[in-house]
Design a protein that fits this description.
Shape: globular
CATH topology of the largest domain: Neurolysin, domain 3
Number of domains: 2
Number of strands: 3
EC number: 3.4.17.19
Pfam families: Peptidase_M32 (PF02074)
Order of helices and strands: HHHHHHHHHEEEHHHHHHHHHHH
Radius of gyration: 22 Å
Structural class: mainly alpha
Strand content: under 5%
Number of helices: 20
Distance between the termini: 66 Å
Strand order of the largest sheet: 1-3-2
Largest sheet: 3 strands, mixed
Function: Broad specificity carboxypetidase that releases amino acids sequentially from the C-terminus, including neutral, aromatic, polar and basic residues.
InterPro entries: Peptidase_M32_Taq
Cofactor: Zn(2+)
Length: 490
């Protein structure tokens, strides 16, 4: 065997073990008994120790030194790019620190969930301090004298920096704020009212997942506190949650199906290799957001969903498909990021980006986080946070150490705007198909032009290859202004 073949065989096993660790995380959220949390924390730490040791194994360094990338093809060079980056980054983080982060964040997840249920920020702060301190140590090791927060962003969106993100957000904010103010001053569509039993929500949500091509032979849907997608290749699982307002369930599901479709759509040639996963969280989010918003909340698809709602729940107070389209896209005051409309969603992300950047750089103390959140929210949205679960405790991300993750949601929205523009140009009769609940032309185009390639290209090049143009915020802003201008008669 060549050095490349030996390295890829070793990497195959490492990727398989990573999938096992991911399944432990899924199990913890979906079906693990509550009392198992302390043991699961030890199990997660043990798995992380094994994975960390493999990622920095001296044999990997020796193989990398022996391989001449110039002698490799495009796919093999891309595999090397990912493995080299993982080896170099992982080698910078001490094994005991990696294991401690895995242990503490596993425990913190349960503490956060209980604090959220109890509306008790103080119960979570000591644990959050531990998580922040550990992640700062990791960031300092990775940055090697550079910007700590940039080092964290690089885990989720390679080649992106906080300065670039801040510049993008600053350019987007004025038009988003202006659109929000105009929309909220206009007459609003009807609100959804009625009784929507959880079992019927779950029955319909499975139908929605199937309508977007989710492969149930290689996946499943479960209920959790905070929806997510887990796994890749032949085992890609999604979760959702029910509530009094069924759109929360339906669109959380469609969102997670977008993530899952990306993973399920990657070429099987890349299975259990570095290319067999989505290339970045921003690109990943582009898939979940275009499924959820440009497709799932469009006039055509909501017309089909309106009929499914009537068949499932009977008369629920909305009389026409046009009224239902307005109800689905109604812009409301609200606290919850995952339930935010397209107009306001990015404002939620900008808040989190600024706060977590300050935390990681030491400019904001954990004890001051709740007050900083509440002040910023009141400034951006014009009203006060009413309880912690609607404020600083609403998201799971910080409890599990995902600092640098939040900005990728807005990057995903930007990428989705670019993809939607290219998709509409490529499939001009798309709405006629979506009106029948048939998303195959859209999902097929995304699979052919983006999903199948997995991690083959860099994030920016992935979008450029799919759309024929470099990523830009303009298509997203133009789409939002046109859609909501029409809906609200602006």
């Amino acid at each position: 065997m060549s050095a490349y073949d030996e390295l890829m065989a070793f990497e195959h096993s490492t990727q398989a073990l990573g999938q096992v660790a991911g399944r432990l995380g899924w199990d913890q959220e979906a079906i693990m008994p509550k009392g198992a949390a302390p043991q699961r924390a030890e199990e997660m730490a043990a798995m992380e120790s094994v994975l960390h040791a493999r990622r920095i194994d001296p044999k990997v360094g020796a193989w990398l030194a022996e391989i001449d990338d110039a002698q490799l093809g495009e796919v093999e060079r891309a595999q090397m790019r990912h493995i080299r980056k993982s080896y170099e980054r992982t080698s910078k983080v001490p094994a005991d620190l990696a294991a401690e982060i895995a242990k503490v964040t596993s425990r913190a997840q349960g503490i956060w969930a209980q604090a959220r249920a109890d509306e008790d920020v103080a119960a979570f702060l000591p644990t959050l301090k531990d998580v922040v301190a550990l992640k700062q140590q990791e960031g300092q090791a990775l940055a090697a004298g550079g910007n700590v927060y940039d080092a964290m962003i690089d885990d989720y969106e390679p080649e992106m920096t906080a300065v670039e993100i801040a510049a993008m957000f600053d350019a987007m904010r004025p038009r988003l704020v202006a659109l929000r103010e105009a929309v909220l001053a206009a007459k609003a569509p009807p609100q959804l009212v009625g009784d929507f039993p959880a079992d019927k929500q779950m029955a319909l949500t499975a139908k929605l997942a199937a309508s977007f091509g989710y492969d149930f032979d290689h996946g499943r849907i479960d209920c959790v506190t905070h929806p997510f997608c887990s796994g890749s290749g032949l085992d890609v699982r999604i979760t959702t949650r029910t509530s009094d307002e069924p759109f929360n369930c339906f669109y959380s599901t469609i969102h997670e199906v977008g993530h899952a479709a990306y993973e399920q759509g990657i070429s099987r040639d890349y299975l259990l290799t570095p290319l067999g996963r989505g290339v970045s969280m921003g690109v990943h989010e582009s898939q979940s957001r275009i499924y959820e918003n440009q497709l799932g909340r469009g006039r055509a698809y909501t017309g089909w969903l309106f009929e499914q709602m009537k068949a499932t729940f009977g008369d629920f107070g909305v009389k026409t498909a046009d009224d239902f389209y307005g109800t689905v896209n109604r812009v409301n005051d609200g606290y919850i990021r995952t339930e935010a409309d397209e107009v306001q969603y990015n404002l939620h992300i900008m808040l989190r980006f600024d706060l977590e950047r300050a935390l990681m750089l030491g400019d904001l103390a954990v004890d001051d986080l709740e007050a900083a959140w509440n002040d910023r929210f009141a400034s951006d949205f014009g009203y006060a946070v009413d309880k912690p679960s609607n404020g600083v405790l609403q998201d799971v991300h910080w409890s599990v150490g995902l600092f640098g993750y939040f900005p990728t949601y807005s990057l995903g929205n930007v990428y989705a705007g670019c993809l939607n523009e290219a998709l509409r140009n490529a499939v001009p009769n798309l709405d006629a198909q979506l009106a029948q609940g048939d998303t195959s032309a859209a999902t097929g185009w995304l699979r052919q032009n983006l999903q199948q390639f997995g991690g083959l290209r860099t994030p920016a090049d992935t979008i450029t290859h799919a759309t024929g143009a470099a990523p830009s915020g303009e298509p997203l802003l133009a789409y939002l202004e046109a859609k909501f201008g029409d809906l609200y008669g602006l």
